[in-house]
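Quick one:
INPUT:
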């Protein structure tokens, strides 16, 4: 299964109790309520969906939606 941009945004928004349209894609997600536990939840969710190469460090280094979408695309294109 492939994680689409829309699915990833929905997953992120769900963890933050936001509507997908309320996420600021360029702002640091920590400023929007993201914490390390939630990042790990996303890693596990996306691994379970088949993105086996994803890890915490890939997401923690730059916590913007735009970066995370780029990471997911790159891992799924290989």
């Amino acid at each position: 299964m492939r994680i689409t941009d829309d699915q990833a945004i929905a997953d992120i928004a769900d963890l933050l109790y936001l509507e997908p349209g309320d996420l600021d894609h360029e702002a640091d997600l920590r400023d929007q309520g993201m914490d390390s536990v939630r990042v790990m939840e996303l890693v596990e969710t996306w691994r379970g969906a088949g993105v086996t190469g994803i890890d915490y460090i890939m997401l923690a280094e730059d916590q913007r939606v735009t970066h995370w979408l780029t990471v997911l695309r790159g891992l799924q294109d290989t």
